[in-house]
Amino acid sequence: MKQVILALGLLLSSLTPAQAADTYTQTRYPIVLVHGVMGWDSLLGLIEHMYRIPYELQRSGAKVYVPTVAFLNSNEYRADQLVRYLSALEDYKFNLFAHSQGAPTSRWAATVIPERIASITSIHGVNKGSFFADTFVKAVPQGTVRGGVIDALGKTLGYLATLLDAGNSDDLTCLTTGRCSQDSMAAAYTMTTDEMIRQNSLLGWQGLDPDGCGTGSEDLWIYGHRIKAFSWGGTDPTTTDFKWYDIFRPNMVLNEAEDAFLSLTASFSSRPSDGLTDICSQKFGRVIRIDYPLNHFDAVNHIFGETGSINVPSLYRAQANRLRNMGL
């Protein structure tokens, strides 16, 4: 009898399926990670702009694209590059995860190919402008010697990043042909509050509160196509708990310098901010949470994952799962 029971047990175990694959982030449509100003894909194939985030999404089933648009240029220019990138892909629709300037870049792209966009998630997005950009353009007016110097430095930095960015074919073409896509002053002006008021008026203020610091609709309607809108953001410019022994850890030293810079820039605004963008500008569509203890650079899991108490990739994973459960 024992032999019969054992045989049945072995038979049943052989019929049990293998452990189910992890599908927590397996969305219906691919996820596209759209970087912000001065962003890249992967420097030398080693340093990701969105550090470890593509892997953390892919390991649970997500299909992920990481395009590279202009390091420094206007929202509309970058949107045109994004449209060309997406249009060359065979996938039917996309979920755009957009950081910083990537948010208005994605919103402009959606006006061109709304039928290809399933959702836009703004991450610390510059949706109503940046107080830092406002301060910058006042300090460095366009057409002045200072403006020219800053523009030249910005372009040089952009071209250097292009050379180091594996896979940035658009800007490699720029370097070899002279048809360049780096414009430091255009990048600054496009994110000023006044300029974003103009752009949002053209975009119909969809997903935004035009009159205050409230929230907008979760549903964007563009030429009859519905696009779901989400956002999250942060309000803590300084997130590194620096100890004396961290002087021997280069990434922590860089994090401390980052925190010092963002503490200074945060003083330019009377509202809570992540150091570069205040909470009103970060709100877009359905607000998941707007007061994470994160700064603007933490939002892409830098520097090298040192982001204080928050596991940043888990925020991206949770949003992917949210979209998965919505059939997106």
UniProtKB/TrEMBL annotation:
Signal found in the keyword field = yes
What superkingdom heads the lineage? Bacteria
Entry keyword Signal: yes
Q: Which InterPro entries match?
A: AB_hydrolase_1, AB_hydrolase_fold
Alphabetically sorted, this entry's keywords are: Hydrolase, Signal
Q: Name one GO molecular function term.
A: hydrolase activity
Q: What is this protein called?
A: Alpha/beta fold hydrolase
Q: Which residues form the signal peptide?
A: 1-20
Q: Which organism is the protein's source?
A: Thermohahella caldifontis
**Domain (AB hydrolase-1): residue spans on this chain:** 30-138
Q: Name one Pfam family in it.
A: Abhydrolase_1
What are the coiled-coil residue ranges? none
What residue intervals traverse the membrane? none
